[in-house]
Specification:
Helix content: 55-70%
Low-confidence stretches: 128-132
Shape: elongated
Largest sheet: none
Strand content: under 5%
Radius of gyration: 33 Å
Number of helices: 6
Length: 146
C-alpha cells in the first residue's frame, strides 16, 4: 500500500531503531550510580550522562518528526543544541593539555630546612654558605646578613 521508496525508508528506519534499542538497552538498564562507579574521571561521568541525555532527546525528536510535529521551533531542538554544546565543552576540557607541577628541589630544601630549624643545631646548615658569609637560618644573629 506504500510506495516502494517509502517502504524502503520505513524498513531502514525500523532496522536502525532496532539497532539503537539494542545498543541503548544495556546503558539504560544500568543504574546511574553503577555507571558512574566505572568512571574514574569526573569528565567521563559527565560524558556518560550527556550521551544518555542526547540519546533520549534524539529519540524523542525522531518520534516527533515521524508523528508529523514540526520540530524546527520545538523546544527539543534547543535542548539538543544545549546538550551538544555541553558535549563539546567536555571534549575540549578533556583534550586540553594539563600542566604538570614542577618541583624546585633546592627551593623545597631551603623552605623545609627553614621550617624545621631549631636553635642550637648546626646539622642543616650549608658549609659553603658559612664560608661565603651568607645568611642561613641556623647562623648566629651576628653573622646573618639583613
Amino acid at each position: 500500500s506504500l510506495p516502494d521508496e517509502l517502504e524502503d525508508v520505513c524498513t531502514n528506519f525500523h532496522v536502525a531503531l532496532g539497532k539503537a534499542d539494542e545498543k541503548l538497552t544495556p546503558l539504560l538498564s544500568t543504574q546511574r550510580e553503577v555507571l558512574h562507579e566505572s568512571c574514574d574521571d569526573p569528565l567521563d561521568k559527565a560524558a556518560a550522562d550527556l550521551v544518555v541525555a542526547f540519546a533520549a532527546n534524539s529519540l524523542f525528536w525522531a518520534y516527533l518528526s515521524t508523528s508529523g510535529v514540526p520540530t524546527a521551533g520545538h523546544p527539543i531542538k534547543k535542548e539538543l543544541d544545549r546538550i551538544k554544546a555541553c558535549m563539546n565543552r567536555v571534549k575540549e576540557t578533556k583534550n586540553k593539555p594539563r600542566r604538570s607541577v614542577v618541583l624546585n628541589k633546592e627551593a623545597t630544601k631551603r623552605v623545609f630546612r627553614g621550617a624545621t630549624w631549631t636553635p642550637g643545631k648546626d646539622k642543616g646548615s650549608s658549609g659553603a654558605a658559612k664560608r661565603q658569609g651568607m645568611s642561613t637560618p641556623d647562623a648566629p644573629a651576628s653573622k646573618r646578613r639583613a
